[in-house]
Structures are given as C-alpha cells and as structure tokens.
Amino acid sequence: MGDLNTKKVFYQKSKCPFFLSFGAVWQTIRLSFFKKLGRILFTLLNNFARRNYCLAVFNRVKVDYIINFRYNSNACNSIFMSYFEIIGGKKLNGEIEVKGAKNAALKAVAAALLSREKWTITNFPFIEDTKRILELIEDLGVRVKRFSNKVEIQADQIKKSQLDDELAKKLRASIILAGPVLARKGEVRMHHPGGCVIGKRPIDMFLDGFQKFGAVVKWENDHFRMSAKKLKGAKIFFPRITVTGTETMMITAVLAEGETVLSNAAMEPEIPALAEFLNKCGAKISGAGTPTIKIRGVKSIKGGKLELIPDRIEAGTFAILGALAGGKVRIKNCVPDHVRALLTYLEKAGVKIEEKKNELIVWGAKKLKPVNIATHEYPGFATDIQPPFTLLMTQAKGSSLIHDSIFESRLMFTDALNLMGAHIAMNDPHRATVNGPTKLTGRKIASPDLRAGITLVLAGLIANGKTKIENIYQIDRGYEKIEERLQKLGADIRRVKK
Ligand code: EPU
After folding, report:
1. Buried b (16+ CB within 10 A) or exposed e, 295-332
2. What does the pLDDT read at residue 173?
3. CB of 383 shorter than 6 A to ligand 1
4. Taking the CB of residue 157, how many other CB atoms lie within 10 A of it?
C-alpha cells in the first residue's frame, strides 16, 4: 500500500512543472536506453546472420566458380597445354590495331542462317569463339569459306536441327543459333550452352522468348528441344536486360509472321549494327539501339556484305594497357564513343588520352587516382572492362570500390592478382575494394576466363620478373594472336607450346 501511495504522491507531485519535466526526461532516458539496447542487439544479430548468409552465398558462388573453371579447362585440353611467358617491366610504345568485334561476329554468323543467299562478313576476327561457331554451322550443313579476315557463309541448306554437343558446350553464343535454325527447320535441339565462368548464366529468358513465338520447349536427356511449325510475332518484355537474349529474339523475329515488339531490350552497339545490315538484306527492324525494338516479319532475307564494327572491349583493354605500361600507345581502328564510359573514368583516374575519329592515343600514367566504378549495361561501364580496370586500380594511390552488378563470379580472378602482390578484398561476390598502389611480382597463374585472362597478361606486363599464364585457350577465345600484337609494342611475351 505504502508503495502505491508513494507512487501516487510521485505522480501527483509530478504534476508540478519540475517533476513533470523530470519524470518525462527520466521516462525518455529509460525508453531510449532500452530502445537503443534493443536496436544494438538487433543490429548485432542481424549483421551476424547477414554475414553468415553472405559468406554462405560467397562460398557457394566460389565453389560453382571452381567447378566451372575446372570443367572449362578440361574442355579444351590440347590448347590448354600452351602457356604465355611474360617478362614484365618493359615500357610499351607504338601502334596496336583493334580487330572486328567478337560479340558482333558471333551474332552475324547466326544471322547469316536466316538467308539462303551468300553473306560475306569482313573485319572478321579469327579467334577460338568465332572458329567454334563456324564449326557449329558447318556441322549443320552450312557452307563456310574462310579468308584472312573475312568469311563467306551460305546457308542455302541447313541439313540438321541438332547442334553439336561438344561445340555448343564451349560457347555461350551457341544459343543464338537456336533462333534461325528453329525458323528454318521448324525445330532445334541443343545442349545447355557453355562460355565464360563468370556466373550462373541461365537461359530462362531465351526459353520464355521462344515460347512466346509459339515454340514448344521440352527438356529431354540433357537437351533442350524446341519446335514450331510456324513462328508468330510476339510481344516480349525482358525482365532483365540481356544482350544475347535481345539479339536472339531480334534475329528470330525476322522470319516470324507478323510484328514482334521487344521491350527493355539491350542497347549495345553490336545490336543496331546488325539490325542495320539485316534491313539492307530485306528485314524490317526499327528501334535497335533503344530499349524498344520492333520487327515486322518477312518471308526471306537476301545476301550481302557486312563489315563488323571494331571490338570495343579490345579497344578499352588496350587503353588500360597504355595507361599501365605506356609510353605512348596509339590504338587504331576503334570507335571512341563505344568506350565513352571507360574514357570518362580513365580521365578521372588521371590518365591522359587524346581522341581522334577512329583512334585513341593513351600515355602511361605516373600518378593514378582511385576511382569507384559500377558496371552497367551499355552505355554504362561494360562488365567486360571491369577486370582490367580493377588491375589499373591496384596501381592507384588509395582505395577504390569495384562493383560488378551483372555477373556474380567476375571478381573471383582477383585472387590471382593478390597472389602477384595486389591488395584486393572481396566484400561480397559482386563487390571488391582495391587498395593501392601495390608492386606486382611475376607468378605462375592460370587464366580463369577470357577477360580475367587478358587482365593477367596486363598484370604480367607490369610485374617484376617472370609471369607464366596457363589455360590461355580462354584468352585466345577473344583476342587474335595477342602475343604478336603486344610484341609490336615492345612487350616481352611469348607463347610456349608444350
Ligand atoms: N540472364 C538471365 N537469364 C537469361 C539471360 C541472361 O538471368 O536468360 C542474366 C545473366 O546471368 C546476367 C545478365 O542477365 O546476369 C546479363 O547477361 P546477358 O544475357 O546480357 O549476357 P550475355 O548475352 O550472355 C554478353 C556478352 C558477354 C558480356 C555480356 C554483358 C556475348 C557472346 N557475350 O553475354 O561477353 O559480358 O553480354 O555485356 O555477346 C565476353 O565477351 O567476354 C563476354 C562474357
């Protein structure tokens, strides 16, 4: 009772302004203390759970990556035996020419199957990926003639509708053949496509797209089988921007009956370039290079001559090489606008660049500043340029954050750079912090994928001592005779065949 009374008195007393404010302050302190304590405990528990979750995701991604890396390495055993030997530290000077774009060549070869007439593709890069796609279409019965930097394709007949398993497994772009083969043969059967080990790379948007065109998609004995008597124009919205998905649906729509509308389409320069040529051959495509592409189906496609655009990823890689190891490096046969995002960030980092119509001149940077980047679909910062840019940041003074928003294994190669002396910490599968500058030392390393592989070559060129890079099939997939072209700049690099 006494207690109750005391409380009463307290509350009564607390009616006076002083006690009122004291009581209120005390209550607030008590409440905010428990609230704060609660919040701290919640944050700790949450962080702990999140950290464990991130670690679990990270480890799963890493395991997937290692399994795929081994698989990819074994898939190309013969060329896998060759390696690059690089003695680093030479100043590079002179000219280097950019070849035709790999990712334009692959799609042009597929598009050539739409026509019964001859397609001549010039500025054609003879790299492992384009060689594989040519082998794939030859296996289907298509006639192919190879010249020094051009190829002639005549698909007057497509004899088979089954893509060769081993070849399809080596190439992500094999999926793009599904569209024209389906349109011409009424069915196509193929293994899940392969390609770089840079993430899961599903094909759900392709399968959804083919179904919208009226195809029946079945999964049987590790193969996709798609069939359709007639393809019908469709309205396709891509839930996520996909480059090859956009190109595949655009090509497929050319021979489909009626109108197709692709929304949230990719805008990479290879897409309008291909559309422009297809239109010359009789296709009716509008809006390529914007997020909405419209295609009115036609009965047939004529032959013609297509010159491929220069490889923007090669141009970007060479610009970074110039910044890291120039001297003065002149990059010929490129379109500076196609690497605008990279040029902007290079200038931010303190790299001196001169731009001409089809050329870039890059000077070696003495003092590099750290820059944060996040990859994005075109016209953003290309994910394919992220690995060499990450290397560049190991030479900048300070820390930079690299965010690859597109693929979840594209930063795994940083292990190899750390082995050479870099300080790169993975924050999660998509993000890494680079602390520089760090001196790199030559090591024996293996190329995990194409863009990581060329980055290791660049790292070897600026490292002290000798670097040995194995699994160079991955580099040959995208860079034609790269060692010969680098030697012309003064690089000490040689291909050793075991
Ligand atoms: N995605 C899906 N489902 C799909 C298709 C894609 O979830 O059905 C996801 C991918 O997993 C990825 C994102 O969508 O996270 C974007 O992938 P996209 O389809 O755009 O990639 P891609 O077409 O397979 C092309 C290039 C790549 C380049 C990417 C991004 C070719 C042959 N390949 O791949 O090039 O990195 O676009 O720009 O054109 C390279 O040249 O080294 C290379 C890997």
Report:
1. bbbbeebbbbebbbbbbbbbbbbbbbbbbbbbebbbbb
2. 87
3. yes
4. 11
The b/e string for 167-188 (b: 16+ C-beta within 10 A; e otherwise) is bbbbbbbbbbbbbbbbbbbeeb
Question: Are 58 and 428 spatial neighbours (Cβ–Cβ below 8 Å)?
Answer: yes
The radius of gyration computed from the CA coordinates of the chain, to the nearest angstrom, equals 28
d(CA 188, CA 161): 5
What separation in Å is there between the alpha carbon of 266 and the centre of ligand 1? Answer: 10
Per DSSP (E only), the strands in 364-430 are 373-374, 398-403, 423-428
Distance of CA 164 to the CA centre of its chain: 25
Provide the token pair at 469.
Answer: 């890079």
Which residues are 402's β-sheet partners? 373, 432
Distance 301 CA to ligand 1 centre (A): 27
**pTM of the full structure:** 0.86
pLDDT tens across 346-376, in order?
999 999 999 999 999 999 999 999 999 999 9
pLDDT score at 7 = 41
Q: Which residues of the chain have pLDDT under 50?
A: 1-20, 53-54, 67, 70-78
- Whether 402 and 432 have beta carbons less than 8 Å apart is answered as yes
Which residues are bridge partners to 495 per DSSP? 84
Q: Is 281 a catalytic residue?
A: no
d(CA 69, CA 453): 12
d(CA 242, CA 477): 21
Query: Is the C-beta atom of 199 inside 6 A of ligand 1?
Result: yes
